[in-house]
Design brief:
Subcellular location: Cell projection, Neuron projection; Secreted; Zymogen granule membrane
Distance between the termini: 30 Å
CATH architecture of the largest domain: 3-Layer(aba) Sandwich
Largest sheet: 5 strands, mixed
Family: Belongs to the AB hydrolase superfamily. Lipase family.
Order of helices and strands: EEHEHHEHEEEEEEEE
Number of domains: 2
CATH class of the largest domain: Alpha Beta
CATH superfamily of the largest domain: Alpha/Beta hydrolase fold, catalytic domain
Keywords: Cell projection, Cytoplasmic vesicle, Disulfide bond, Hydrolase, Lipid degradation, Lipid metabolism, Secreted
GO biological process, one term: lipid catabolic process
Number of strands: 12
Pfam families: Lipase, PLAT
Radius of gyration: 21 Å
Strand order of the largest sheet: 1-2-3-5-4
Strand content: 25-35%
Shape: elongated
CATH topology of the largest domain: Rossmann fold
Length: 257
């Protein structure tokens, strides 16, 4: 039984007989997309974990792409009706959109077991454990036999619009060069399963021999890494023409470590 952002008003905090609960089926998975308090934030969905496994994409409260103004949402979407509805309840309705995308991407939407979304963002629950991570949505039940906890809270990030699944990587870049310079470092990954756009790893003072580490959520499951593109820029003309390179780049997949 899959709960798509189960309702908060009149249901949160009530006895198990009244609301969705893990006792309702052999396996209950839940996607929380609008779990901010109803007052004052108008969250429609409940925040407590109530299933065997509970997914909190993007932290479970504010979904990427839902902060747009209503006009741009209506233009972006199929027709005025869906656009208007999405503006009124965009976070709440993301749950069924993630679910429908999960049918098309059986290897997508990996949920990382973590104490909180902040801990997930900091990378303390990376990579997936030896038994793998559950997939949010249609294929969540593949994880049914591996559950060892009463409640399993899982975190992940999604894209702003279709296609929603993202794959998480840890990238570490060691800079080479002769002098420090202000700027940013971008990385693009190429692999047997696809390529990514450029993702910013770091912005600030770049020092030779220092290592800069970042977690990136990319728009393709790239499979085996075949190439990494490194780009740095300082956004202004420097008469000394500084040169920087990458001494080493390490890429770790969240899916299999």
């Amino acid at each position: 039984l899959s709960g798509l952002d189960p309702a908060q008003p009149y249901f949160q905090g009530t006895p198990a007989e009244v609301r969705l609960d893990k006792t309702d089926a052999e396996f209950v998975d839940v996607i929380h997309t609008d779990s901010a308090p109803t007052i004052p934030h108008l969250g429609f969905g409940m925040s407590p974990a109530v299933g065997h496994i509970d997914f909190y994409p993007n932290g479970g409260k504010q979904m990427p792409g839902c902060g747009k103004n209503p006009v741009s949402q209506i233009v972006d979407l199929d027709g005025i009706w869906e656009g208007t509805r999405d503006f009124v309840a965009c976070n709440h309705l993301r749950s069924y959109k993630y679910y429908s995308d999960s049918i098309i991407y059986p290897d997508g939407f990996l949920g990382y077991s973590c104490a909180s979304y902040d801990a997930f963002e900091a990378g303390s629950c990376f990579p997936c454990p030896h038994g793998g991570c559950p997939n949010m949505g249609h294929y969540a039940d593949k994880y049914k036999e591996k559950i060892k906890k009463d409640f399993l809270k899982l975190y992940l990030n999604t894209a702003e619009a279709k296609d929603f699944p993202l794959w998480r990587y840890k990238v570490a870049v060691t800079i080479s060069g002769k002098s420090k310079v202000k700027g940013y470092v971008n990385i693009a990954l190429y692999g047997s399963g696809g390529n990514t756009r450029q993702h910013q790893i770091y912005k600030g003072t770049l020092r030779p021999d220092d290592t800069y580490t970042s977690f990136i959520d990319v728009e393709a499951n790239i499979g085996t890494v075949t190439k990494v593109k490194f780009l740095w820029n300082n956004n202004w003309i420097n008469p000394t023409l500084p040169k920087l390179g990458a001494a080493t780049i390490t890429v770790q997949s969240g899916q299999n470590g």
